[in-house]
Write a structure and sequence with these properties.
Layout lengths: L14 E2 L8 H15 L4 E2 L2 H6 L6 H8 L2 E2 L5 E3 L4 H14 L3 E4 L16 E4 L6 E5 L4 E5 L4 H10 L2 E2 L12 H7 L6 H4 L2 H4 E7 L5 E3 L25 E8 L1 E2 L3 E9 L2 H13 L6 E5 L1 H7 L10 E9 L1 H17 L3 E2 L3 H9 L5 H5 L5 E10 L3 H13 L4 E11 L3 E10 L7 H18 L18 H5 L1 H13 L13
Parallel strand pairs: 1-3, 4-6, 5-6
Antiparallel strand pairs: 2-4, 7-8, 8-12, 9-13, 10-11, 10-12, 14-16, 14-17, 15-16, 15-19, 18-20, 19-20
Bound molecules: flavin-adenine dinucleotide.
Flavin-adenine dinucleotide binds next to strand 5, helix 6 and strand 12.
């Protein structure tokens, strides 16, 4: 970063949003030396450039702060562990020194979860990216959690298998981040969400203890403590290794699309398909606004709700699933639109340039994913769209449904707007989020389907979890009495 006269600006000249208590120079040097002793100096940094790089994740508010020349938060050190012992030793040191640990995958989280708001040691997991075993008989893969998503999928594809977890952030996120946020991929209706795919895991708890669950398909040996780590967003430990389910690479894939007059008809078709025991890999139902935005080339879909379906797997089963789904969609008035819209979706599914294009123009833009049962689904859709549109400055509120269960659905809302009456963009942004969260809870939904809580949703978690939030706080206090693991996240 440079000023107008091209002289370098030091970090101290920038406004740091979450200003933390500084360590003394003596302490800084002492901890640096101890970290180098544990990890080797090549795996430790306290350089300014690295601190700035690890000062944010993909939370849109943090992105805007950066554009305004503000730094969200600075860590004191960044470390790149190469094994589980490194992590355990670093966590023990952090306990002794009472400084925070912030696990870091690839920083694609959109809730601010990886921002080091109280400084401390960012533990970047990227060097822990090894595939330890592909067991073709058991249909499992065992990997270290720093592995990049696309590399994991490619490793399996080469062997004739798939993991089936394809989030839109596939190229820029890690297995550890997925597990820590309970992520969902685009093919989730068939293959499950990341939490469904886990067989066992290894993790380092907040005082440095290492736990490892058994690699067996199921056991009945008390509550599963390892599962506490799923969705814990780095607040209860660092997940270091996992054994996960895999699938043979699909023999056949079919693409179908239908346009519906009404949201209800589209949802009803999907519900009926799932009731038959058919789980298409991809199901996406777009409202009118999103149909117009994504499928403007499909004339038959004009002014309608577009549904796309991808079936994949064994040829005979896929043929049957395609035929039955077709019958159900036609029964509900679906107009067949062919393969073209699905091919278009495949071509554009990793296209995410909007957020970075709009922010510099003072246009706010974000997405909100929630889940709800079938019997409340239409009501929730309508009330969330209404509540967002009702905020002055909001120009657009739309949604598609993209993850499905026999019991219900995940809606993925998009909103955009420009601030009016001197309201700061981030304040408009927060107002829309609060309106959306309130109406989601009122309509009986869950405030997050797969992005997690981080900072953005922290003020809503108590309302969402009720008494269970008290339990979570007690667990956190017991496991992490010095509150060193990713402090200030998830409302903890
Ligand atoms: C363009 C875009 C598209 C996206 N699409 C999807 C999508 O389709 N589906 C979806 O679910 N999400 C999606 N996301 C959100 C994001 O990719 C996920 O939340 C992902 O799980 C974060 O992974 P990461 O490795 O980047 O984690 P980070 O952002 O680095 O970290 C996220 C959180 O997990 C913690 N963490 C990271 N690694 C570990 C570990 N090993 N142990 C313990 N805690 C850890 C961090 O401390 C932080 O709290 C998208 C994001 C972007 C920017």
């Amino acid at each position: 970063m440079t000023t107008k006269n091209n002289s370098k600006k030091s970090i101290d000249e920038y406004k740091v949003i979450y200003r933390k208590k500084e360590l003394s120079e003596k302490k800084k040097k002492e901890i640096l030396k101890k970290l180098c002793d544990i990890l080797g100096s090549e795996n430790v940094s306290d350089k300014e450039i690295d601190k700035i790089s690890y000062s944010k994740d993909y939370w849109p508010i943090a992105l805007r702060w950066m554009l305004e020349g503000k730094i969200p938060a600075l860590p004191d050190y960044i470390v790149w562990p190469e094994n589980t012992k490194h992590i355990s030793d670093v966590i023990k040191l952090a306990n002794e020194e009472e400084i925070p640990i912030i696990p870091f995958g690839e920083g694609s989280g959109v809730m601010g979860g990886a921002i080091p708001i109280k400084g401390g040691i960012v533990v970047d997991m990227k060097k822990m990216n090894k595939t330890l075993e592909i067991n073709k008989k058991n249909l499992t893969i065992t990997v270290q959690t720093g592995i990049n998503g696309m590399n994991l999928e490619r490793t399996l594809n080469k062997e004739g298998y798939t993991f089936g977890h394809n989030p839109q952030s596939l190229y820029c996120s890690t297995l550890g981040g997925w597990l820590a946020c309970r992520a969902a991929g685009q093919f989730s209706t068939k293959y499950g969400k990341i939490d469904d795919m886990v067989i066992s895991l290894e993790a380092v708890l907040p005082q440095g203890e290492i736990i490892r669950s058994k690699n067996v398909p199921k056991s009945s040996t008390g509550p599963r403590t390892d599962k506490l780590l799923l969705g814990s967003e780095g607040t209860l430990g660092i997940i270091t290794e996992s054994t996960l389910k895999i699938w043979p690479y699909p023999e056949k894939r079919t693409l179908q699309s239908y346009a519906f007059e009404d949201l209800k008809d589209g949802l009803e078709s999907i519900r009926k398909i799932l009731r038959k025991g058919i789980f298409p890999a991809v199901i996406r139902l777009y409202d009118k606004i999103e149909t117009a935005r994504h499928f403007y080339q499909t004339k038959k879909a004009k002014g309608k709700y577009m549904l796309i379906l991808v079936m994949e797997g064994d040829k005979e089963l896929v043929d049957l699933e395609e035929r039955v789904s077709h019958e159900i969609c036609e029964e509900h008035g679906g107009i067949k639109c062919g393969e073209e819209p699905v091919l278009h979706w495949f071509d554009t599914r990793f296209n995410v340039k909007e957020a970075s294009e709009f922010a510099p123009r003072d246009v706010i833009f974000d997405t909100i994913e929630v889940s709800v049962n079938w019997d409340k689904s239409v009501e929730l859709y309508n009330s969330m769209i209404f509540s967002m549109k009702n905020i002055e400055g909001v120009i657009l509120a739309s949604a598609h449904a993209s993850h499905f269960y026999p019991q219900g659905v995940c809606f993925y809302f998009t909103f955009g707007g420009t601030p009016v009456k001197n309201i700061a963009p981030n304040d408009l942004y927060k107002s829309v989020w609060n309106a959306a969260m309130r109406s989601c809870i009122d309509a009986g939904g869950s405030i997050s389907h797969h992005h997690g809580i981080g900072i953005m949703r922290a003020s809503w978690i108590e309302k969402e979890l009720g008494q269970s939030f008290e339990v979570l706080k007690r667990i956190k206090k017991t496991l992490d009495p010095k509150n060193i693991m990713n402090p200030g996240k998830m409302g903890l």
